[in-house]
Structures are given as structure tokens and as C-alpha cells.
Amino acid sequence: MNMLIYLIPIALFMGGIGLAAFLWSLKSGQYDDLQGAAWRVLADDEADSWKP
Amino acid sequence: MTCCTMDADGVLAMSATSFSSEEVTLASHPLGSGLFQLDLSVPDAHCGACIATIERALAKLPFVRKARVNLTTRRVSCVYAKEVEGRPTDPAEIINAVNSVGYRAHLFAPVAAENDKTRNQLLLAVGVAGFAAANIMLLSVSVWSGADAATRDMFHWISAMIAAPALVYAGRFFFQSAWNALRHGRTNMDVPISLAVTLSYAVSLWETMHHGEHAWFDATVSLLFFLLIGRTLDHIMREKARAAINGLARISPRGALVVSPDGSRRYVAIEDISVGDEVAVAAGDRIPVDGLVSKGESDLDLSIVTGESNPVAVSEGAAVSSGAMNLTGSLVVRATKLARDSLLAEIINLMEAAEGGRARYRRIADRAAALYSPVVHLLALVSFLAWGFLGGDWKQAMLVAVAVLIITCPCALGLAVPVVQVVAAGELFRKGIMVKDGSALERLAEIDTVAFDKTGTLTLGTPRLVKTVADGEADVALAAGMALHSRHPLSQALARGTPIAPMPFDRVSEIPGGGLEARHGDGHYRLGSAAFACAQTSNSASPDSPLSEVVLTSDGVVKARFFFEDVVRPGAEETIARLDAGRFETFIFSGDRQSVVDATAAKLGVRRAVGALSPKQKVDECETLNESGRRVFMVGDGINDAPALAAAHVSMAPASASDIGRQAADLVFFTERLDAVAEAIQIARQSAALIRQNFALAIGYNVLAVPIALAGLATPLIAAVAMSTSSIIVVTNALRLTAFGTRPLSRLSREPAALAKEIKTA
What we know:
- The complex is a heterodimer of chains A (52) and B (762).
- Chain A is an all-alpha fold and 52 residues long.
- Chain A contains two helices and no strands.
- Chain A has helices at 3-27, 34-40.
- The termini of chain A are far apart.
- In chain B, helix 8 packs parallel to helix 25, helix 13 (411-430) runs parallel beside helix 25 (716-735) and helix 14 packs across helix 24.
- The chains are: A mainly alpha (52), B alpha+beta (762).
């Protein structure tokens, strides 16, 4: 039963990483254009649209 | 280059409005350090190649720093520098660049920020609830598989600690909405949800403190998780439709050229035009404010303002109303009203007065909740008292009551409606029809009467040559050659409609408000209205004829006559026939002349057609129908239709409609064909049938599960299994809607019950 002392925090921590990753992806606008993202995968070379 | 890029010239010809540099600057917002952001709507972009083409075209401009296409909202956001090497840049070039690769681009007012925030909050809440539900479920499975004594208590405590913040954070949407409803003395679906969630958490906590065997934390949080998914989907569906509608070109102008007394012209935003200002309106522009013509002559296209299908000639002193399109000559208009007091303001007042059916309508889920929650709460209370008094064990009584609340908590009911509506809206979206919210679908399923506007809805508002009376082909070629020089719709229809090669003219002069004049050889030719062309020999057709007439004369002698009528929107006849077959009553309510309306009605087979209606009268017609117990579905586009669109039970507008018409309508269709009307009705009815089935399934589940809970046999495990199964069944049933797409579209039965039966047997 002592194993639980490690296992439960590990499980919660891993779940927390998943949640944090989701929050980050939401904040960085990855859900703003789901259709466009699907197409951009196929684009030959994503020319960097930022210019000096 | 691709399937979808259009011929660039065609696009440029289509987009009659070009944007001035000032107007574009007005629409972009500063980001600081000399950078500006311009958001454009590009309704034609729809694949990966479109993204690449547009972004590449914009990246070529020297002053554009960043350009990114959002395919979901069909928008481009473009960051550009105000100045490059000390010289000011022209942001209108951005629009030209997009046009030159074959896409239309419109300015639009960015209103999305607030809504995006709600969406992100909902998604966050889903994420948090999902995280909590997964972890608690993990611990609950351990408890169910045999953990006991101290281990079980520890698991319960951890669950309680995970559940508490998740409940507060993710549950606030339901708590707020439930509180709002209660404060106004109403109940909605969120009241039983909130009650079940809070009570079950409290009881579970109490159990945990007293080393009890059963805790309901998993049920509490997964309930929230499921319901939030439904709510988020519902929100995203509405956002998608709103984004698509906001992306459409604004029809009313954003500003106008004001002529100062010294003759200089400057571009002024429309709100800043004051009474007495002289405004220059070029041919091809729309009149920005109500006023009087102080200089110039022209023809105005009023189709979007009044529904009048024929252009109207105006000259000095004539009153013009905002929204009318100036066709042939340039005008100077003296503003007599502020933009906010213009015709539009009157229409908005009418709309507010008319708003009735929609405001009174109660969503089906709320109506169900009004019946459902008293029953459920009474049941829980009765079981609590019964177990307490009969069994004497009040703790056991409390557990049973909570089990009843959780088992009956409207998880399936909460999902039953939104999932069906989201699937239906997605199906309509694919067919080019935007639904603004779920209640529009519910109302659409109830209608029994369809009222159409004529100009711009049943017809396209563009004339077509139907009859030519001429002595020889030479005269027709002459007329076509002259017509090529004008942008008057009748001239363009004439040039398009004659199969004979037009005779080239070097000089054709256009007399605004009259017609065209030219010399060829020694002949003096005039093409235009009968009054203009044969100035003295005025034996014109009666002014009440449904056809518009154009006459060609040579030195006052009539050489040829051309007759035009408005083109009927493709699919209109089939749509009316389908509506008739479905036993819907059809009406035409138009602002156009009665004779023209009658001709269209006869052609399409609409029995009742009323013409020459003012916006107020259109509302009255709708309300008379409402009062006689009918549910009216109004389809219209013009500014004059907007109040009627608001007064009807549910309404629809084409994408080409006036700005206010699109705002007033519940649905907007982006296709050219009128079939959208019948298809929307059909899908709305199918979804209504599915919603009823889902309610039946959810109630059936309760009838089975409640006795188990009442008997005190429901453990948390049974509750979790029962809840998930019922949710899955309801969602799966909702997904069947897409399967209807493969069925013949002619099924538009009037009786929803019959339709439901059909679906069941299928």
C-alpha cells in the first residue's frame, strides 16, 4: 500500500501535464483555425511570412 | 492554378465596390510603432491552395509585415507599416492584391473578440472538468474493485479535493444561469443540474468524513464534463454562423466624400456627416444618408430599399433615401438627416416594435425543464421522507434521495437538444445555410406558412431580355452596341441578351435619368425609356405593365422595342412546388408594383400575392397571419423587409441581402438557389423529430432507473454506468441526422408525427 504514496501523485502529475499542455495550446491560438491547420500540413514550403 | 481560384477579371467585375485608401485606413487598427492591422473577409477562400495564394500575394507587397489566412472564419489578418522609407503607404493595395489573385475581399467590423473569449473560457472549463473526471474515475474504479477501510477513505478525500475546484470553475456556467433563472422566478435546465451537482457533492463529502462506503464524486464531475461538452458545441456552432455572416460585404457605405463650400472633397465616416453637408455620390456607389439631390441627374436602383425592381430616375430636388444604388450619373446630395436618423433608424424602430414571436419563444429544453424539475425534486423529497419515516434511518434516506437526484439528473436531456442542433447546423452549414442559434431550428420546425419577398429573394433583382420587337437584325445590333456603353441594368441585360454581334460605336453619351444617345452615319439614335427615346410620339406601353420596356429610335422613329423582366432565382419554382406538396401556405409580400408581383406569383404558382406594401404594412400582414394562429416563415432581403423578418416566427435572408436584413434574419443562405428554403425546413423538421426521440429515450431511461434508485439499490457504480450509457445513446441517435442526407429530399410532410413515424420505421 505504500506504493500509493508515489503512484497517486505521479498519476495526478501526469494528468496535470496534460491539462497544462491543453491550456497552453488554447492560449497560443492553436484552436483558432482548425480547417486552415489541416491544409497547412500539405503546403510545400511554409514561406516565413514575417519579413524584417 | 487550382480548382477554386476564379478568373481575376470576373472577380473584379463582380466586386462593383472598390475601397478608397481612406476607407481602408478607417477600418484598420493601430498596433503601435507605425504598424497597423487590417482584417479582411475573403468569403471565397476554402482550401490549402487558397491560403498559399493569398499569403504569397500579400507577402509580395513591400509594406506588409505579416499576413495570415484563417480558413475557418474565412479571414485574412494583415499587419502593415504605415510608412516605408518615409513615404506613406496605400493600404488599399492590400485589397487590390487579394483581388488580383482572384478573391473577393471585404472590410468588416471586428466584433469577434468578446465571443472568442467566451469560447476559450468554455474550452478551458471542458479541459478542467475532463481532467478532474478522468482522475476521479481512476480512483473510483479502485474503490469499486475492492479498496476498503483507510485506502478507500484516502481515495475519497483525494477525489473530494480534485472535485471541489473543478466544480467551482467548470460549474459556474450552470450556477450562474440557474441563479439568473431563479431570480426571475423561472426555471430552466440548469436548475436541476446545479441542484444535483451541489447536493451530491455535499452528501459525498459528508459520507467521506464519516468513513462511508459510497461517494458520488465521479458522477458529479463527469456530469459536468458531459454537459459542458454540449454547451461548448452549441456555442461554437453559433460563433461559426455569426463569423460567416459578419464576413459578408457590407452593403451600406462606411463613409462618403463630403464636398466643402470651397469645392475640396474629403472622406468622412458616415456618422460624422451632418445635416446640410453636400455629399458626392459617384455612379456605382450607394447613397450614404437620406437627402435631396442638389446637383446632377441619375437613375437609382431602389430594389434593396423598397423592393421596386425598376430603376427610378432622379434629378435636382428629388428626395433620395440611404441604401439606394446610384446607377448612371454622379450626384451631389444634400443631407437632410443624420445617418442615425435615416430610413434605417425608422426601420430599426419598426423592428423593435415588431419583435414578438422570438422574444416570447421558450426553448424546448426549458419547457421540458419546467415540467421535469418539479417532478424530479418532488420525487427526491418524497423518497427522502418515505425512507426516513418508514425506515427510520435518515442517513440512508438522504443517500437514496441523492441517488434519485443523480440518476434523474438531466444529463441525457441536457445533451439531447444541443447535440441534435449542432449536427443539424453542421449539415446546413455544408449546404451553405447559416443558423444563428438553436432556437431558430426549433421555431423553423413549427412553421406552416411561408411568406416571400419578391425582389432579391424570389427574383435575383437583375433583369433579363424576354421579348424583342424589331424590323431587322441591324437595329438590334445597333441597340446592343449602344447598350454596351452603359452600366444601367437594362442596358447590360440588353447587351448580354442579344445573340447578334453588337455594332461598334465610338461615341455614345448617356443622359442620366433618360437613356443613351449616339450618332451613326447620318442617323441620330436614342435608346432608353419610351418617354425619352420618342420624346414626342409617346405611345408607350401602359406604366402598369409587368415588363419593363426599352425603345430604340432613329430620329424619333421607333425602330425596335425590348421587353425585360426580373430573373427568377434558380430553384424558385421547385421550391414553391415542394412547399405546396408539403401543404404549406405560400405568400408573396412585396414592395414592388402589384402588376409585377402578380406576374411573378402566376409564374411560380403562388396563390396570394400582395404588392405595393410599405415596411409597416409587411409587418401588419405578418401579424395578421400570426393572429390567425399561423406560424410564419418570412424569407426576405431588403431594408424594407427587416421589420417583417423580425415579426415573423422565424426568418431567412440570402447572403446578398441588406446589412439590416441579414441581422434581422435567423438564417442566412449563401447559395444562389432558393432550394435552401425547403432544405432548411426539412432539416429543421428532422432535427425536431430526433429531439423528440431523444426526449423519449431519456424519459424511458428514467422510468427504468428511478425504481432502482427508489429501492435504495443504486450504488455509485450503477449510477455511473447508467448515466454514461444514456448519454451515449442520445448522442448516437443525434448523429443519425447526417444519415438523412442520403435520403430523397422530397419528404416534406406537414405532420411531424408522420415524419417521426417514418423515421422510426426506416
